[in-house]
Amino acid sequence: GQYESQVYTDSSTGDLDFFYYVSNDQISRDTIARISAGDFTGFTTSVGYVSGTTQPTSADRYTADTVGFNVSLAPGSNTWLEVQTNAKYYTVGTLNIQDDGQAQVSAFAPAVPEPVSMSLLGSGLVGLGLLRWRRSAKK
């Protein structure tokens, strides 16, 4: 089969939506039964699928980290699955595809900003505030 992972920013909120495309080869002997995406700990999620593709039979928050979709993806079919989150950043995560076996592949997933990045941003904002205060005090 094939898979693809894409991330879109909701223009009204700045939140990230994660899309996962999975297709089952026409010549495959197995139906794909489950697709799960990891690294969602600490983020709210709402799940769905793109119309015109195979609809999942159910979706769940399998663990605090994993969002899963039960599907019946027969050979020759495909699905686009969506996970809406409140995340603002993303990184490389994992996608698991299960039929008779299991394959774990790289995909996009939410990310918490690193503390160093946040401290650099914070110190830059404090510096700009002090500069503005100093200029207004000279007048």
SSE topology:
Blueprint: E1 2-9, E2 16-23, E3 32-37, E4 45-49, E5 58-61, E6 67-73, E7 78-85, E8 89-98, E9 102-111, H1 115-138
Antiparallel strand pairs: 1-2, 2-7, 3-6, 3-8, 4-7, 5-6, 8-9
What report would you give on this structure?
The chain is α+β, with helices and mostly antiparallel strands and 139 residues long. The chain has one helix spanning 115-138; strands at 2-9, 16-23, 32-37, 45-49, 58-61, 67-73, 78-85, 89-98, 102-111. The longest helix has 24 residues, at 115-138. It is elongated. The termini are far apart. The mean pLDDT is 87.
Anisotropy-based shape: elongated
* Helix content range: 10-25%
Structural class: alpha+beta
Distance between the first and last residues' Cα: 68 Å
Note the run of SSEs as H and E. Answer: EEEEEEEEEH
Q: What is the makeup of the main sheet?
A: 5 strands, antiparallel
Rg over CA atoms, rounded to whole Å, is: 20 Å
How many DSSP H or I helices? Answer: 1
Q: Beta-strand level of the residues, as a percent range?
A: over 45%
Beta-strand segment tally: 9
Please give the order of strands in the largest beta sheet: 5-6-3-8-9
Poorly predicted spans: none
In round numbers, the mean pLDDT is 87
Features of this protein?
5-stranded antiparallel β-sheet; 1 helix; 17% helix; 4-stranded antiparallel β-sheet; alpha+beta
At a glance:
The protein contains one helix and nine strands; from the N terminus they run βββββββββα. The protein has 139 residues and is an alpha+beta fold.
